[in-house]
Amino acid sequence: MGAERPIILDGGLSNALEDRGHDLSDALWSARLLRDAPAEIAAVHRTYFAAGAMVATTASYQASVRGFAQAGVPEREAERLISSSVRIARDVRDEFGDGRLVAASVGPYGAFLADGSEYRGRYGVPASTLRDFHGPRLELLIDAAPDLLAIETVPDVDEAEVLVELLRELDFPAWFAYSAADGKTRAGQPLADAFAVTAIPQVVAVGINCCDPDDVRTAVATAVAVTWRPAVAYPNSGAVWNAEARAWAGEPADFATLAPAWVASGAAYVGGCCQVGPAQISELAKALDAQHLAK
After folding, report:
1. Residue 1: which pLDDT band, with cuts at 50, 70 and 90?
2. Are strands 148-154 and 101-106 parallel, antiparallel or unpaired?
3. Is the N end or the C end of the chain the one with fewer CB atoms within 10 Å?
4. What DSSP letter does each residue of 156-214 carry, written as one string?
5. Does the pLDDT at position 4 exceed 60?
6. Nearest partner of 101 among 275, 271, 279, 295, judged by Cα
7. Which domains does the chain have, with CATH numbers?
8. Are 246 and 286 in contact, with CB atoms under 8 Å apart?
């Protein structure tokens, strides 16, 4: 694939909200603000669009009826909050127009567990548990009318198989991104095998997110070779989380330098994940626009 102009994604929602002064240390993470400060979520979507993003990824990554229930939110209200994540993003999208999209974020089961399992996978639960968890949430998000789903940070093939089956049944477009490292899913399966699971008509792009930037180029090339679909890539900043100090350490990668090679390898959707903010998205957008104009 050549270096066509990609769709610029947004960056991390949680770090942008933290930069605005919000404490997201509870189990609901950024989803808590769907209840407590929805205008702040809208403000972050607005900031990313202004920086050059063409996609708003909703604040539903960590949102589930079960997760809200554990925080004391009644079921009907939890359903409303999950749906509202799409409405908030759509309202901001409509302010900007110009072909921008809303992607409804679908985080893995491990995000609900809030114990880091999305970086390990293999939760020790049957496929029926994963289906019961994901199915109703997918239906709520689809009913709220996003442009597509963002199935993201999936750590293993077991969960991917459940999600792919649901996507096929619901017949709704999605990109599908694994959490990966060193050419494997976080659970240790080869990415080529993992990508092959996602090769259904409803998946419009497949790739990785929440990973080291250095892992992207090879993963993108593998995704395109296996699925014959465009790739999606939105890694972390390059800083490393120090769990003991509960802080990010290290210097962020230069996305503006790295991303053109991702696009040349087949990435059609490009953005950032943890610790990537509006400034980096702006630099990324300018670099990829320059690459496109130079063709």
Report:
1. very low
2. parallel
3. C
4. -HHHHHHHHHHHHHHT--EEEEEEEETTEETTS-BHHHHHHHT-STTEEEEEEESS-GG
5. yes
6. 271
7. 7-294 (3.20.20.330)
8. no
Q: How many CB atoms lie within 10 A of CB 118?
A: 26
Spell out the residues 6+ positions from residue 42 whose beta carbon is closer than 8 angstroms to its own. 88, 89, 91, 92
- Per the annotation, where are the binding residues for Zn(2+)? 210, 273-274
The answer to whether 234 touches 221, Cβ cutoff 8 Å, is no
Give the tokens for residue 62.
């960590």
Amino acid at 74: P
Give binding residues as ranges.
Answer: 210, 273-274
Predicted structure pTM score: 0.95
Write out pLDDT tens, residues 20-40. 999 988 888 899 999 999 999
- Whether 263 contacts 230, CB under 8 Å: no
